[in-house]
């Protein structure tokens, strides 16, 4: 397998949850060149200006904020290809970035699993593992049916939960449920992200990795297309894309099943 290594999920220090002042396009491109990552995609958090921001976190990250990236692109990218995307939000059944904004980007990452945002993303009455799992299944299907997400960011990764809690939630989703979700994603052309940050804590524990591998194997068998992402918010996290690549290799995902952006 000779899949060109790419990382389409990188935050810079424009994202308010990045606390690394060194997380700049310049430094990311240098790291990518040194590690054989041929294409990088910047995907800072964004919430559209047309809709009142759903939280203080998003109030500081309108589209105009993330567009500042265009002034931060160095002349020399060390031969690395650069794409400019964004990671928006899917809340209350809505994608929080207008078509006019989306048209200005190379691609759009949309998560359905920012369930740490209780009340905004996860309804407050979804408490048990079964209820959270049910939310993840429903929100995944609702999202891909919108035909807006180029890539579903960290699918079925319950953000904010520990590895053991994650296992408890994913144990509640059957193979048949995953297959129904991924068949829908394949039909709608939404790429499935293999996000290294989503399982880096589980990486050396086969029992905790098993559910991630089960999920991605089903996505592979449903004919989905994939992308790789580190979800790095700091320079030291860029290496998580290598875990994503290793998992793709372990699951024998063929080269032609990676999105060509
Ligand atoms: Zn995310
Ligand atoms: Zn992210």
Number of helices: 9
Mean pLDDT: 95
Give the uncertain stretches in residue-range form.
none
Tell me which CATH architecture applies here: Alpha-Beta Barrel
Q: What is the number of beta strands? A: 9
Described by its quaternary structure, the protein is single chain
In percent terms, what proportion of residues is strand? 15-25%
Identify the CATH homologous superfamily. Answer: Metal-dependent hydrolases
CATH fold name: TIM Barrel
- State the helical fraction: 25-40%
Number of domains: 1
**Distinct compounds present:** zinc ion
Largest sheet entry: 7 strands, parallel
H/E element string? EHEHHEEEHEHEHHEHEH
Report on the architecture of this protein:
By secondary structure, the chain is of the alpha/beta class. The protein has one domain: Metal-dependent hydrolases (TIM Barrel), CATH 3.20.20. The chain is built from nine helices and nine strands. A seven-stranded parallel beta sheet has the order 1-2-3-6-7-8-9, with helices on one face. Strands 4-5 form a two-stranded antiparallel ribbon. Strand 6, helix 5 and strand 7 (151-153) form a beta-alpha-beta unit. Helix 5 packs across helix 6 (163-170). The protein starts with 5 loop residues before the first strand and ends in an 11-residue tail after the last helix. One zinc ion binds next to loops.
């Amino acid at each position: 397998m000779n899949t060109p290594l790419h990382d389409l999920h990188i935050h810079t220090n424009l994202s308010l949850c990045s606390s690394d002042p060194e997380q700049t396009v310049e430094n990311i491109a240098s790291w990518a060149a040194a590690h054989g990552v041929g294409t990088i995609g910047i995907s800072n958090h964004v919430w559209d200006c047309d809709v009142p921001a759903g939280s203080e976190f998003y109030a500081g990250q309108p589209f105009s904020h993330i567009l500042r990236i265009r002034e931060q692109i160095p002349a020399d990218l060390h031969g690395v290809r650069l794409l400019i995307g964004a990671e928006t939000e899917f809340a209350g059944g809505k994608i929080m970035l207008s078509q006019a904004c989306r048209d200005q980007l190379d691609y759009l990452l949309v998560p359905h699993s920012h369930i740490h945002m209780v009340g905004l993303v996860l309804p407050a009455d979804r408490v048990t593992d079964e209820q959270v799992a049910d939310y993840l299944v429903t929100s995944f299907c609702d999202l891909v049916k919108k035909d807006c997400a180029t890539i579903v960011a960290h699918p079925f990764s319950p953000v904010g939960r520990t590895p053991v809690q994650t296992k408890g939630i994913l144990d509640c989703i059957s193979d048949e449920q995953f297959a129904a979700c991924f068949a829908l994603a394949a039909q709608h052309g939404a790429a499935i992200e293999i996000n290294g940050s989503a399982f880096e804590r589980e990486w050396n524990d086969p029992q905790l990795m098993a559910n991630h591998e089960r999920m991605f194997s089903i996505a592979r068998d449903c004919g989905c297309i994939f992308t790789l992402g580190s979800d790095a918010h700091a320079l030291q996290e860029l290496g998580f894309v290598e875990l994503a690549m290793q998992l793709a290799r372990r699951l024998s995902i063929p080269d032609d099943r990676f999105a060509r952006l």
